[in-house]
């Protein structure tokens, strides 16, 4: 159905998207998934943060076979972040501080992505330039060390490549652009027992608690790669996005070439919004999607009803109105085909609630 939805009328596409969000919430809240998550966190208490591109292929829980909700995502167009951005820096610091108060350590996985088979399947945010994407990820790691210290005993920033043809992780060693790596795709299933030693050698300053909690992710990725290799796989290389997502709460959108997700982190949101609108316009112009409309969807999460939910509603409406105005000014013809929606996300249940 995913491949067919790109050609459906805009009303059908929006209905399909809402059904996808409901299905994600139901799965997240299912007894089996909830118990698996609780059991996992009882055994592995490090907070794991994933900083990643909005590309739907970059789905860390899926490729590491980790229960949903264990890895806390920070997603943005191109995986581009700057810890000097006021909102992002405050949010990240608050997240780390809350974990530390609970006695937890923090692993931050800073991803960049590329395709081994064809350069054009790489990250559009860096013009499919793997070296540029890697350098940006290293720059984020440097900022992490400035913010949280270079001793790595509480917060450990880890640069991780994501090879999208096989969903394979490539862990980069510490130090100034270290050339040491652990490429999971180069290991065999029989080498799973050697992973703990390989991690210890690659990261000699990583606390054992974080090594313990990183290990299941690498083991899961090794299993996942084995499963991927057993099934013929179509590799999507063509932009066919028809949704612009603005804000947070889009974990259900882990599908390639459906949505362009812009986190609310940069102080200049107008630039990525114009970039995303330009991609949508190109998709229509070249017949990759119907020209009857596209969706601008804004969302903000909340934990509790009352003031928190009301505040999330105000945020979401602001983002929706702001994004729509940017598109109207930069792409007036495209704006005539724009459908705008705002929503709030009940974070404990990952439930997307549309606003009137």
- The end-to-end distance, rounded to whole angstroms, is 28 Å
Largest sheet: 6 strands, mixed
Uncertain stretches of 5 or more adjacent residues: none
Mean pLDDT equals 91
Tell me the fraction of residues in β-strands, as a range. 15-25%
User: What is the SS-derived class?
Assistant: alpha/beta
Helix count equals 11
Q: Order of SSEs, N→C?
A: HHHEHEHEHEEEHHEEHEHHEE
Strand order of the largest sheet: 2-1-3-4-5-6
Secondary structure: number of strands: 11
Q: Helical percent range?
A: 40-55%
Large-scale geometry:
globular
Radius of gyration, Cα only, in angstroms?
20 Å
Quick tags:
356 residues; alpha/beta; 6-stranded mixed sheet; 42% helix; globular
Can you walk me through this structure?
Helices cover 42% and strands 20% of the residues. It has 356 residues and is of the alpha/beta class. Strands 2-1-3-4-5-6 form a six-stranded mixed β-sheet. Strands 8-7-9-10-11 form a five-stranded mixed β-sheet, with helices on both faces. A hairpin with a 4-residue loop joins strand 4 and strand 5. The mean pLDDT is 91.
Q: How do you describe this structure in short?
A:
By secondary structure, the protein is an alpha/beta fold. It contains eleven helices and eleven strands.
Please give the structural blueprint.
Elements lengths: L1 H4 L4 H20 L1 H13 L3 E7 L6 H5 L6 E6 L9 H16 L4 E9 L15 H19 L6 E9 L4 E5 L8 E3 L11 H8 L5 H21 L14 E5 L11 E4 L7 H16 L8 E9 L4 H24 L1 H4 L2 E9 L4 E4 L2
Parallel strand pairs: 1-2, 1-3, 3-4, 7-8, 7-9, 9-10
Antiparallel strand pairs: 4-5, 5-6, 10-11
Helix pairs in contact: 7-8, 9-10
